[in-house]
Each structure stands twice: as C-alpha cells, then as structure tokens.
Write a structure and sequence with these properties.
10% of the residues lie in helices and 56% in strands. It is mainly β and 127 residues long.
Length: 127
C-alpha cells in the first residue's frame, strides 16, 4: 500500500508550487445556443481576483448553416473573484470587444453585450 502512495507523493512534491495549469472554457451563445465557444486560457495575475486570458474560437453550429460552419477567432479575458461566484469577461472577436458577466450555478450564465447590438445569452463552463 505504501509503495502505491510514494509515486503520488513524489509527483506532488516535484510539481512547482504556483505553476498554473491552463483551463478549458466551453460555452454556447445565442438565443438557441447557435454559437459554440471554446478557449484555452492561462492565469495572468494571481491574487484574490484571479485573471485568465487566451485565444478563443466561436463556431456557428445552428441548423441554418449552408456552406459549413462559420468560424471566428479572437481572445477571451476574464476574472473570477475568490469571494464570489461571478465571472466577468471581455470577449474580443473580429475587432469587436464584448463584455460578459455570469453567475455560477451548474455553469456561468449571463448575457454577452456587444456595442450597437442587443445582448445575447451566454453559458460558460470552466474546467
């Protein structure tokens, strides 16, 4: 039994403390969830409010797609406050910067707001 736990303990001791692992973010945007969002983010500013940033891809997965799914790339930047269950993000796609604030339940649920457009629902899962 001890021989089983020794490699686990050594693995924990060898891993650098503070080495942040990338997080996977997936989500669905739109009234019918017609846009799929995927991103891989890394920690940029540790502290009481942890910040993450990284590239994202948005793919139109709705049934109205005729010539294959439309795909857009951009960046995702967000903060998660340690003391709350709220995620605040900035999503930049095709030169447009949108804001998002989501409340945690089984996912982060909120509205993405882009300049000159009506807000759209966005659900995010952070793994």
């Amino acid at each position: 039994m001890k021989a089983y736990f020794l490699p686990i303990l050594l693995g924990i001791l060898v891993t650098p403390a503070g080495a942040a692992q990338p997080l996977q973010v997936i989500g669905y945007s739109g009234h019918l969830g017609e846009w799929e969002l995927t991103a891989t983010v890394t920690e940029t500013a540790p502290g009481s409010t942890t910040e993450y940033a990284g590239p994202l891809t948005m793919k139109h997965i709705g049934i109205c797609t005729q010539d294959g799914p439309e795909e857009k790339t951009g960046s995702l930047r967000f903060r998660i406050a340690a003391s709350s269950s709220r995620l605040n993000a900035t999503i930049s796609v095709a030169g447009v910067e949108c804001t998002y604030s989501g409340q945690l339940s089984d996912s982060y649920t909120g509205t993405m707001n882009c300049p000159g457009r009506q807000g759209v629902p966005l659900k995010l899962w952070v793994k």
